[in-house]
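Quick one: structure for this chain?
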Amino acid sequence: MQLLRVAWALTGAAICCFLILLIHSRLLKEGQLAAGTCEIVTLDRDSSQPRRTIARQTARCACKKGQIAGTTRARPACVDAGIVRKRQWCEMVPCLEDEGCDLLVNKSGWTCTQPGGRVKTTTAL
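Got it. Here's what it folds into:
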């Protein structure tokens, strides 16, 4: 009798956990981002000028408290809001591993310099 009660209690707990997981997965519907993640929404490239490509990218982020949309390793990411507030762009590690990061003189963005000397400049809006 006691064993039967334990079995029913465990079955009830398992069903309850399953229902909670099911409800949670339904709440995160398609199109919603998990906390702390980003996705690229639009990406436009303009190569009309010789030796220069202008790229504009729009990202959608679901950042946690104290974070804001930024760039890490050349991809959109949630970064510490203080980095953006202070305009210390290189602290969010925006360049790829083999590139060097330098702030623009007016702190409006940064440059990523590749080993071959090619420079990518990014300005924040």
